Amino acid sequence: MKQRLLKTLTLRYAFLTISVFNTLVAHALTKSSTDNFKEKSIDSVCITSPFDCLSRIDLELSKKNQSELVKYDLLQYRFVALFNLQRNKSLLEETTKWLSHDNLPIPFKITVYIYHAKSLRAFGKSEKTKIYAEKAITLLKQMNEIFPSPMRLVELANLTMQYGEVQQAYSLLSQLTVKFKDSKNALFKTELHGNLGHAAAKLQKYQEAEQRWKAALYWGDIVGNKQQQGVIRYNLADIYEQLAQLNTATLYFEKALSFSQQAQDSNKILLIKFRLSQLYVKQQMNCQAYQLINSIEKSALSLSKQQTYDTLIKHLKPC
To answer: Which of 255, 236, 257, 225 is nearest to 81 (CA)?
Structure first.
């Protein structure tokens, strides 16, 4: 009876979500050649640039007579874009508004719980993170029984990893790579290999993490989201630094910086510059390190990073 009720409540919205997801995949594989912002569909804009996505969503939400289902879908895009751009304060505020709403479509409620948990985690609220992650996991499992989805299983693994069950997430993701090895869904493959790369790195399986992030790089370049392309290269650079392959790490940090600048991802630009400055110093590339560290606004760094910043500034001399 419970399953029948859940199916009735979610059927209409789930079909919309599946339709939107398939549209996203189609745009990822056959992107429009036009660069005109207004001519692109919301799917195409959001899949290629979270920065442009937010502007487009504001435009769409300002239109009158939008159906409730379309509004929910636009808000899901918005939450993803805010998370990708690390605008955690805004994400926390916006998801909090929806927590007390009753009778929300189940897929939208899942998205609210997921991104509320992610924003709480960014502020170190681990106990509350676990509460909302578990709420999302419960609903995801119920939905997956009715509408099986490999992407939903990746979401489950990601949430499981968020509050410390890394081995469990790693096992689930590893199974998915075998089961869906022939999939040509670029979005799914990017998310699958990226999450598995994270899990492998947390388990200190750095050689495997390298291979997973390389796979994510291949599929991510097909999708063409410059912000995510920067993130993938950043994670590859981090793995190569862990493997003491400093030249390769430097190359990927520099590539990550280029993509992040194109995507106008200010938070990632700041982080990459900081990490790259440290890496230049390790390789005695002091001129490059001096130029880069001096392009960083100290006040934008966390307090712990500001201490490292002061050490670098003191150590480095103008060239």
So the answer is: 225
Contact between 272 and 256 (Cβ < 8 Å)? yes
Mean pLDDT for back-to-back runs of 10 residues, the chain (319 residues): 42 36 36 44 82 90 86 93 92 96 91 94 90 91 83 89 88 95 95 97 97 98 94 98 97 97 92 96 94 94 92 88
Nearest to 143 by CA among 18, 23, 47: 18
Token pair, residue 146, equals 């009715």
How confident is the model at residue 317, as a pLDDT?
A: 87
Residue-range definition of the domain harbouring residue 13: 2-226
Distances (CA, A) of 219 to 36, 95, 111, 191: 25, 30, 24, 9
Q: For residues 75 and 58, give the distance between their C-alpha atoms in angstroms, rounded to a whole number.
A: 10
Number of domains in the chain: 2
The residue among 203, 226, 249 that closes a domain is: 226
Residues 109 and 241 in one domain: no
Structure confidence at residue 282 (pLDDT): 95
Same domain? For 205 and 305 the reply is: no
Q: Between vectors from CA 118 to CA 63 and to CA 40, what angle results, nearest 5°?
A: 35
89 shares its domain with 31? yes
DSSP, res 40: S
Residue 35's contacts (CB-CB under 8 Å, 6 or more residues apart) are none
What is the C-alpha separation between 246 and 273, in angstroms, rounded?
15
